[in-house]
Amino acid sequence: MTRVLSYGRVSTRDQVDGYSLPAQRERLAAYAQFHGWDTPLHFEDPAISGKRDVRPAWTALMAAFKPGDTVLAKDLSRIARGGIVQTLTIIRDIEARGGRLILIDQSLDTSTPFGRVVLSILATFAEFELEQTRERSLIGRTQAAKSGAWPQGSVPYGYRRNAERRLELNPETMEAARTALRALIGRSYEAAKEHLQEIGLPSPTGKPTWSTTRLFSMAAQTAYIGEAVYTSDGERIIIPCPPLLTREEWALIHAGRDPGHAGGARPEKYPLTGHFRCEHGAPLNGTTAITWEKHKVVARFRTYHVTARLKQSYGCNCTMRRADELEAQTRALLARVLSDPSDPAALRALTAPPDPLADLHAQEREEIASALSNLTRLRVMGQIEERDYLNLREELKGRERALAPKPQNVTLPPAMLELAEDVRASTSEQLAELLDLLEVKLRLPHGGEVELVQFRPLGR
After folding, report:
1. Which end of the chain is least crowded, N or C, by CB within 10 Å?
2. How confident is the model at residue 265 (pLDDT cuts 50, 70, 90)?
3. Residue 353 has what pLDDT?
4. What is the DSSP string of 369-422?
5. What superkingdom does the record give (predicted)?
6. Whole-angstrom distance, CA of residue 124 vs CA of residue 381
7. Is the pLDDT of residue 16 over 90?
8. The overall pTM is greater than 0.70
9. Which residues contact 314 (CB under 8 A, 6 or more apart)?
């Protein structure tokens, strides 16, 4: 007698309650009985997507599989929804174990060449149908977002979806979310996490356990100031919702914090954070380094470093540097350029080339470059006389020179000279404020001293 293993699957709880699994089970048993086989050993996965390679019941079926067994399923979509690769992998696995797969709706048997070919074609169409479904689903979610509905299943902590699928404040969790966010004012993510766990505030899991990653995620969620964001195929859609915080509180949460780093620190403790990049372009963040001796902490000191993730992204191998040393160099450098506008560092920062994105003559520059290229090509091909070539070339070069940015006036206002003394005597918190005020950007060469890249004097 043929030993039969039957398999049923549904992807949603609604299908489970709608008797889809019992219907599959009865039909598979009837098919086996009609062919005179043993009663199938049945396996079923309720509410499991067919795109998943690991499914509990399917794994158990394959564990019980023996050479010569037959696997029965209603149709292709029951065993695989992940495309032709997943389908062929399952078929080859069954065949390698000495068995076969039969899909009763399509009357396909993988033990025959025809069955294998048709099954591959069906898998291709199933994959196409799945892609079409994804596209329709994406369009539906995008339209819902543009109409003001929240299209995702999960909602920001402190909110819930109403009957119209719009975000509204959740009375049960809104105060906990507000407290968690306010804990970030004046604290690093790590310090805020420790504070919330000390006071026993429940997290989204319902337990008083917090992580810096969760706090970082909440601090990036603009729904808390009334502007939830949904991104669809590169399009950023703003969804209005009730704010949980004021914009002033939101600004305080992010003051002096690196937006790309979950370990962002207080500005008064690490004033260079947000103003500082290494020679590879990676931002440096403040952190506390610890020296251990015989399993005991013997020293703690502030440092600036590039995180491991950013090192990988920027191809950077920069080492950790002492914060006191770099901040002293920054004070001395800034005081020097504020006192003497003719200092080379000041001239470089003040006369830096304009942002190419803000170049009002970018299109005309491209046209001139293209014309020069074509002119050179004509001369090389002998299609233009040398005299005409030189005259036209000089005319184009003259137009190009006329577009060059004019040198900026580097005379500093008197107020800036007074700031030089303030910089020398500034505390860490005051230094952070001055760096923000002057829009200072700094660069740290590997093993070198701090360099000034940009600053904007008051009154300019």
Report:
1. N
2. very low
3. 46
4. HHHHHHHHHHHHTT-S-HHHHHHHHHHHHHHHHHTSPPPPP-PPPHHHHHHHHH
5. Bacteria
6. 54
7. no
8. no
9. 278, 280, 281, 282, 306
